[in-house]
Amino acid sequence: MRIAIDAHGGDHAPDAVVEGIRQAKEKWPDLKIILIGLKDMEDQLALDGVEFRPVTEKIEPEDKPTQAVRRKKDSSIVVGCQMVRKKEADAFISGGNTGALMAAGFFHVGRLKGVDRPALAPVFPTLNGKGILVLDVGANPEAKPEHLRQYATMGSIYAEKVLGFESPRVGLLNIGTEEGKGTELTREAYALIEKDLAARFVGNVEARDILEGPCEVLVCDGFTGNVLLKNTEGVAKAVFGRLKQELTANWMTKSMAALLKPRLKKFAQAMDYKEHGGAPLLGLKGPVIKAHGSSDARAFYNAIRQTRRFLQHDVISRMEEELS
Amino acid sequence: MRIAIDAHGGDHAPDAVVEGIRQAKEKWPDLKIILIGLKDMEDQLALDGVEFRPVTEKIEPEDKPTQAVRRKKDSSIVVGCQMVRKKEADAFISGGNTGALMAAGFFHVGRLKGVDRPALAPVFPTLNGKGILVLDVGANPEAKPEHLRQYATMGSIYAEKVLGFESPRVGLLNIGTEEGKGTELTREAYALIEKDLAARFVGNVEARDILEGPCEVLVCDGFTGNVLLKNTEGVAKAVFGRLKQELTANWMTKSMAALLKPRLKKFAQAMDYKEHGGAPLLGLKGPVIKAHGSSDARAFYNAIRQTRRFLQHDVISRMEEELS
After folding, report:
1. CA–CA separation, B118 vs B140, rounded Å?
2. Cβ contact, residue pair A239, B238, below 8 Å
3. Which of A100, A148, A204, B172 is a plausible cystine mate for A65, CB 3.0–4.6 Å?
4. Which residue, among B148, B208, B247, B273, would best test binding to A if mutated, counting the most A CBs under 10 Å from its CB?
5. What is the ipTM of this complex?
6. How much of chain B exceeds pLDDT 90, in percent?
């Protein structure tokens, strides 16, 4: 099992990446890691027992995805995806430019047989701490019913094998719970998914219920999923931010905040994406995992843990079997 | 100015409705209110100086909207909309079944010249307390670019005249900030709105930035808007709910919670839809206002206050002028 990792992806790269790998190597000493990084940073990125693959270019967060992938052929993102295709690596993890990673995955790793569009599938936090896999959150903004059907199957296999849910339930994001609600897309997708998954399909799920964990896999088009992801981040950040402001307003609230901290921290942790690893790009011929842009060492460690399970359970073959 | 109000809409009806009207009459003694309620509840609903319009039917929250509007012709929702069309009332407010109110508005009040689809336009809370008008949140799940252009104009007039924003800025909800992002719908709508509004159009707005108040009017298709609305409610409710749980876990946290309460309450109020009145259904020939289902007396009072401004500024004629 050889996992290629982008040294330069994310706000805290490369230090958080290197530290995450160090922790993973400590836990699984026989794990083979190939760290892809800028040639002139080789010394800084050196890690015992980790192979270094030098590159000469770097895709920046503000680069235009498709253009960057086309032009920066010797960047960590492009090289990582090519290594997966050439089977020089079994999987690739990056915390870099999401759009570029999706484009490079699509062009250089390639789609799995039976998959029309890959989907980006992060785990959203839920109040019960188990999380819910949401796909797609933006790989394919304009989805067709058939794409949503494929997401349901891929998400369901991933949730079972990698996230460890027994018979995961699948829901369809919609604006009402009754059948027939929503748009032409959701109505047609409903019929297709119901036919495929039968009892494991819980039907339509409304956005206000997501945090309660009404299912383990939630399917939607990439535009809506992306809005959902960013809105959840925005609202949670705003509420926590304002709360912090109120709790540190004066010496009295500050001393109370100190006492409350352990309790609030537990909650903040349950709501934290970092505990859930990265978001896989499902539907490609090999595992490509997007680590969150603000990933710290623990998040990279978790992304590696999750990628191990992805490979151990041979999720890709299972998806190909079910979809082709 | 005669405002018709549904006595039976919302979780706290009819008491919250009656109390909201009482408060409004106290503030504006010459305001004419027509309360539409079930005949056999006339005594309970009697209010000094308020006309009572008896009906024999009631649309329930769980009724199928279009069916209910067709069958229950003597319900408060259908009668209220018909009164607006016949000019027996200048506006109608209801906290009842949202789908039924939208259907009755569409069929019985009718569309304004130049409007293809009416839009439901609630005010979302923002951290600065000013709020942001979002439309559409579900009247028209499958929007076309031209609909979004009309929403931008209607929302902009409403935000200026009723919400009191001077030259309100208009944004387009999208999954990236650069022009060209998103779907065919958002790309085409972007061009149309930019042509119409010029400098007042701030371009694409991402969901994570909404609470910061990047603009005063935010335009989107009804499916996405509905998901956004319900997700915001769901996340805020979950975070506040969990916070309450942590704060009341034992005597120590309880005593701290008591001390923090005034501070947290101020914040909760800023985030509260009740302060912002109801959601107008824009694009109809007369004002129809949806009060939130969980409206209390204060929310109904605010919905009346807002409807007064709607009528005083002759918003409907202004929209007709701009759009036809």
Report:
1. 7
2. no
3. A100
4. B208
5. 0.92
6. 78
